[in-house]
Write a structure and sequence with these properties.
By secondary structure, the chain is of the alpha+beta class. 51% of the residues lie in helices and 18% in strands. An eight-stranded mixed β-sheet has the order 3-9-8-7-4-5-6-10, sandwiched between helices. Strands 1-2 form a two-stranded antiparallel ribbon.
Length: 250
């Protein structure tokens, strides 16, 4: 009811401006009056022209532009709301640039999932050492070298590193922990991962892989806890961990 009333009022204002402008222009052409050195017929014609222009522009906006503008605003707002509600809070166009060491040291849970690359883990050796000193468990999940998944990764040429060499470097990460090296737990999965991850109880970073061969920078997305996307990845990651094989390398 309120919207209908507002629309009627807007239409009446537009009609008043257009008709009023026409009346003033026509009336100004019917007489000539100069008073106090002001040509009043010219003033009426100019005011009428202004009313006519404003009324016409208002009509064009209401009939042609307003719906499209509101449609674009609604689509943008709805899309932004969906993104916010899904849990996406940050994005890095280069996943190698992700660095939240202080946060990862302080987190109660830290689960890291990779295929076989040790580079990221080597870059955060300080995090692993600090977590061991604080008696916080870090769980690292990588591919089982004698699994069909590892064979596929070798045959597909999707990576350039030697799988066994990468896993050996990962296994030596415990050497960086002077105290409580047992707080680093290794799990071997037999899956070709759709994404690698850095999971904590507060958020999760998801790093995707390319479908094509060769190396390139890949993006990563940060997802906040308590959201639908976080719950999806949390369930998937922890299910993978349950299905993986605990590996003792000592």
């Amino acid at each position: 009811m309120q919207n209908t009333l507002t629309k009627i009022i807007q239409q009446q204002i537009t009609l008043f401006l257009i008709l009023g402008g026409l009346v003033l222009i026509i009336s100004a052409s019917a007489f000539h009056l100069e008073l106090f050195k002001v040509k009043w017929d010219h003033v009426m014609a100019e005011v009428g022209g202004l009313f006519l222009i404003v009324g016409t522009l208002h009509w064009l906006f209401e009939s042609l532009l307003k719906k499209e503008m509101l449609k674009e605003i609604a689509i943008t707002a709805l899309g932004s709301a969906r993104i916010y509600e899904s849990g996406l809070v940050d994005c890095s166009l280069n996943s190698k640039s992700i660095s939240e060491n202080h946060f990862w040291i302080a987190s109660n849970e830290l689960i890291i999932g990779v295929h076989y690359s040790s580079r990221f883990l080597e870059n955060i050796h300080e995090v692993l050492r600090e977590r061991c000193s604080s008696k916080k468990i870090t769980q690292i999940c990588f591919v089982k070298p004698d699994s069909p998944a590892a064979d596929y990764l070798k045959d597909s040429g999707s990576g350039l590193a030697d799988i066994k060499a990468g896993i050996d470097r990962i296994s030596h990460l415990k050497d960086s922990c002077v105290t409580n090296p047992q707080k680093i737990e290794f799990f071997r999965h037999d899956r070709v991962l759709r994404y690698s991850f850095i999971y904590t109880e507060q958020n999760v970073w998801i790093k995707f892989f390319t479908n094509s061969k060769g190396r390139t920078e890949v993006p990563a997305f940060k997802i906040d806890r308590g959201t639908p996307l976080y719950r999806f990845f949390e369930n998937d990651i922890k299910t993978l961990l349950k299905q993986a094989e605990i590996w003792k390398n000592n």
